[in-house]
Amino acid sequence: MGQCYGKGIELDDDTFKREKEKEEVSSKASKRNSSSYDHHHNSSSKDYYYSHESYNNSNWSSHTSPLPRYASSTPSTPLRLFKRPFPPPSPARHIQSSLVKRHGRAAAGAPNPNQGGAGGVAAGGATAGGFIPQSSSVELCEKPLDKHFGYPKNFSAKYELGHEVGRGHFGHTCFARIRKGDLKGQPIAVKIISKAKMTTAIAIEDVRREVKILRALTGHENLVHYYDACEDNLNVYIVMELCEGGELLDRILSRGGRYSEEDAKVVVQQILSIVSFCHLQGVVHRDLKPENFLFSTKDEHAQLKAIDFGLSDFVKPDERLNDIVGSAYYVAPEVLHRSYSMEADIWSIGVITYILLCGSRPFWARTESGIFRAVLRADPSFEELPWPSVSTQAKDFVKRLLNKDLRRRMTASQALMHPWIGTNEKVPLDILVYRLVRNYLRSSSMKRAALKALSKTLMEEDLVYLRAQFLLLEPNKNGRVTFENFRTALLKNATEAMKESRVFEILSSMDSLSFKKMDFPEFCAAAISVHQLEGTDRWEDHVRTAYAFFEKDGNHVISIEELAREMGLAPSVPAAVFQDWVRHSDGRLSFVGFSKLLHGVTSRPSGRRHHQ
Ligand SMILES: Nc1ncnc2c1ncn2[C@@H]1O[C@H](COP(=O)(O)OP(=O)(O)OP(=O)(O)O)[C@@H](O)[C@H]1O
Ligand SMILES: [Ca+2]
C-alpha cells in the first residue's frame, strides 16, 4: 500500500523506510498469501478478508449490492499533509484464525465441498453466517502444489547476481550482470520470488501470469523491459532492464512532496501512455501507485517505467473482475463493490496525479475501513492549499479521473488528449471506441437516430478525440471505414496478450459493418459516450438540442411494446412506467423518453466476474 508523505513532513529516511515496509507488508500479504484455487473463478482469501473488513466496518453497503449507496451529502476528505506516518492496518489477517472466529474450529478445519468450482463466494453468495472464503477448502486440504514453471534452470550460468536493489513482500530485486554472449557484462535487474512463499495455487498462478504479461507487453517505452525468466528449486527469477533512477515515490518525496504542474504533466503523460497500451491489450494493472513506477536513470528527465505486474490480469471484453486487490489509497470505488475493469486503473492514476499536484492523498483516514469509506463517498478537496493556485485544466483533469461513476471517467487515451496533457504524440487506439461502436451496431434504429441527433451537438473539444480515433482506423479516400478497418487497426496493435484477453472477440458483433461503410458523422454517433457527456455540466444543453434534431429526423409514433423493447425492459413492466416517456398528444417519444433512450434504463451488473 502506497504511503506518501507530503509537504510539511519531516521524516528521516529510516522512519520513512520503516513505514513503507509496513505498508508493503500489508499490500503484499493481500497478494501471494491468497489461497484461492482458481484465480479467475474464485475469490481469494485475501480479497475476501480485505473486502469483508471494508464492508463490515464501514457498514453501509453489502456484498450483494452492485451500486454504491451514496450518502445524501458528500463530505469532503480533509486535506492531509501526511503528518501521521503510520499506515492503516493490514487487510491480510490469517485466513485460519478468521475462519475460526466466524465459523468455529470445526468448520474452519473442514473442507467445504460446496465451495469448489465457480459458484462459491464470488457468485455473490452470502451464506447465512456471512461469507466463507472460496479458497478455504483449498488451502486447508493438503494437496501438493506444482511449483514447476517450465522456465530454464540455468540462471547462475547465464547471470552473475549482485547486491539487492529493492524488496517487496514476497520477493526481492537484485542487480546482476549477463555472463555471456554479445551482451556480456550488461547490468540488469532480477526479481527473485521465493517458491517457499508460494503456498497456494493462486500464488503460483500469480507469478506465472506476472511473467506472461511482462513478456507479452515488453517493448513499450514506459514499461520495464523483460528479458528472461528462470527457475530453480528455490526461486523464480524474472530478468529485466535495470532501472537506476529509483521509485517515483522517492522523487516526489525528494521534491518536498509534490511536483510542479509542468513536471507532473510529463510524469502523468508517461503513466497514461503505458496504461492505455495495457488496456488496449486487455490487461489491467490493478496496483498503480508511485512505488510501482521507476525512473530508468538518475537523470532529472529520465523515462518512467511501470513495474510490478504481480497483481495484473487479463480482462475479456465486457468482463467484470471481482477480486478486491490493490492498495487502499489507490483503490477505485467499484473495486470495493467487486465489479470492475480497466477503469479502476484510471482512478488510481487520478489519485497519483492528485498527489503529484498537491502532495496529499485525496482519500485519507487512519484506518483502512476509513479510507474505503472516503473512497466510496467523499469528494476530494480542491479548496485547500495549493489547489487555488493550480490551473483549472489540471483540476478538471483530476476530477475526470476521480469520478466515482466509472462510466463517466475518462479512458487513458482520452486523458492523453485532455487539454491539460495535450499530448502531441500519436494518440493510442481506444478500446472504448470499439465497445461503443459495437453497441451502436447492435442497437435499434430508434436508438441510433437518438445517438445521431446527440452527436450533432458535439463541440470541437469532443470532436478532437473522435477525429483522432477515426484517423487511427485509416479511413479510405472517401473518408469511410468498414469492418476491415477496425480489424486491421486492432491487428496493428496486437501482442500476445490479446490472445489471452480475447480482445478480438469484440469484433465478432461488428460484422454488420462488413456490408456497409461508416463515415465520420456516423462514427461520431456510434462512438459518442453518452455517460461521459452526461458527466459534463453542458449535458442539459446537449440533450435539449439533440431532441430538437431528433424531432425532425427520427421521432415516430411508438407503441408501449416497442418502447419496452427499446429500453430493454420486460413486457411485463406496467404501462404506467412509460407514461411520461410518450407524448400523449401524438404518441411519439417525449423529451423524458428521449433522455431515457439515450441513457438506457438498465442497471449495472453486480457480483462476481461475469459478462455485461
Ligand atoms: N527493474 C528494476 N530495476 C530496479 N529496481 C527494481 C526493478 N524492479 C523492481 N525493483 C525494485 O524492487 C522493488 C520491489 O519490486 P516489485 O514491486 O516488482 O516487487 P513486489 O514483491 O511485487 O513488490 P510489492 O510488495 O511492492 O508489490 C521495487 O519497488 C523497486 O524498488
Ligand atoms: Ca511493488
UniProtKB/TrEMBL annotation:
PROSITE patterns recorded: EF_HAND_2, PROTEIN_KINASE_ATP, PROTEIN_KINASE_DOM, PROTEIN_KINASE_ST
Ligand binding (ATP): 191
Keyword Hydrolase attached: no
Ranges of biased composition (kind: Low complexity): 45-62, 106-115
Transmembrane parts of this sequence: none
Database matches in SUPFAM superfamilies: EF-hand (SSF47473), Protein kinase-like (PK-like) (SSF56112)
Domain EF-hand: 461-496
Biased composition regions of type Basic and acidic residues, renumbered to the chain: 14-26
Every Protein kinase domain range: 159-421
Residues in the signal sequence: none
Coiled-coil stretches noted in the UniProt entry, renumbered to this chain: none
Ranges for region Disordered: 1-120
Protein name: Calcium-dependent protein kinase
Native source species: Sphagnum troendelagicum
